[in-house]
Design goal:
26% of the residues lie in helices and 27% in strands. The chain has 164 residues and is of the alpha+beta class. Strands 1, 2, 3, 4, 5 and 8 form a six-stranded antiparallel sheet that branches. A two-stranded antiparallel sheet has the order 6-7.
Length: 164
């Protein structure tokens, strides 16, 4: 398997979240992942199952890697663990870092632990906004343009706080 272009979503709402996003990107680069583009940082209210927690800082990365999806997932989970995330923590709960593989290569992928494209790309504005910032013409493997999904989630508050 040769090098592939991919997209990662990053999130943090524990500790110095901006520093956590930078540290995660640095750790990815130290693991052999080349970062081609970094989105700005966006602040969003918690969504999902636990709403009573601090706002999240979110961003996205465009990457180039030779790691296949399952190995990239292992790297991401290792970085999350090293940065203090409890792998048994509450789903959608507070965390120092979350690294989601949004897409890797052009084709869908599915294993026991990972499904690509990430199933929540189209339902989360905090994923779409930074993703579209670094890849305005991003399309899902079925041809759906990410920018066409944005209108359906426009009621989710997202605020850009830093420029990339």
């Amino acid at each position: 398997m040769g090098p592939m272009i991919g997209y990662l979503g990053l999130g943090s709402n524990v500790g110095d979240s901006e520093a956590n996003l930078r540290a995660a990107a640095d750790a990815l680069e130290a693991s052999g992942v080349t970062i081609l583009a970094r989105a700005s940082i966006y602040v969003t209210a918690p969504q999902g199952e636990i709403l009573d927690q601090p706002d999240f800082f979110n961003s996205a990365l465009k990457i180039d890697t030779e790691l296949p999806p399952t190995e990239l997932l292992i790297v991401a989970k290792s970085i999350e663990h090293d940065m203090g995330r409890d792998p048994d923590g509450l789903r959608h709960g507070p965390r120092p870092i979350d690294i989601d593989i949004l897409m890797l290569g052009d084709a869908p992928f599915e294993s026991e632990r990972l499904k690509l494209p990430h199933r929540e790309i189209g339902t989360r504005r905090f994923v779409l906004e930074p993703l579209l910032e670094i890849e305005p013409d991003f399309k899902l493997p079925d041809g759906t343009r990410a920018k066409d999904l944005l209108a359906a989630v426009s009621d989710q508050p997202v605020r850009k706080v830093t420029n990339s």
